[in-house]
Amino acid sequence: MPDDPLAHRHGRDSVKATVDLLADRWTFLILREAFFGVRRFGEMQRNLGVARTVLSSRLKMLVAEGLFDRRPYRSDPVWFEYRLTDKGLDFYPVALALMQWGDRYLAGPSGAPTILRHRACGHHAEPIWVCGHCHLALHARDIQPEPGPGASRDETR
Predict the structure, then answer these.
(1) What's residue 154's pLDDT?
(2) Which H helix or E strand runs over 81?
(3) What is the structure's pLDDT at 23?
(4) DSSP-derived secondary structure for 20-84
(5) Sign, Cα dihedral of 93, 128, 141, 32
């Protein structure tokens, strides 16, 4: 399928790699908590209702993958908080996209359970994807996938 513009999906695929890394529901929810300002294990555990062992293993993985830094905030005994790294913060648009989709298709009749307010202007935020070149809004039908520099030779033919 060399002429297939999506042939790269069978090789090194960034979506697959991301899903393989983060596809656990708890991982997404832990990241959501962090984006909403939660940094401490106990507060995450209480908010999510997740088993301590599950939360601990997911946080260890997120630290090992570089999405969180683990920093002490108390001694005797030492307690840690989890702060998003730049790599973790770069996941925010993905979390917003999931939230927007859920608000549109899964929210109850009362509407979205969480509203985002833009601190700079004070209005409710409705994030949109735009082209970095022309600044027009992006939609699925506006995009043409092509092999990138990380594609294998078979994928670029």
Answers:
(1) 61
(2) strand 79-84
(3) 79
(4) HHH-SHHHHHHHHHHHTT--BHHHHHHHHT--HHHHHHHHHHHHHTTSEEEEEEETTTTEEEEEE
(5) positive
**Residue 113 structure tokens:** 């359970």
Name residue 110's amino acid.
Answer: S
**Alpha-carbon span 88 to 41, nearest angstrom:** 17
Task: Specify the DSSP class assigned to residue 9.
Answer: G
Q: How many residues does the chain have?
A: 157
The rounded distance, in Å, linking the Cα atoms of 154 and 121 is 49
Give kind and range of the element (H or E) at residue 80: strand 79-84
pLDDT of residue 155: 55
Q: What is the DSSP-derived secondary structure letter of residue 140?
A: G
Q: Quick one: pLDDT band at residue 6, thresholds 50, 70, 90? A: very low
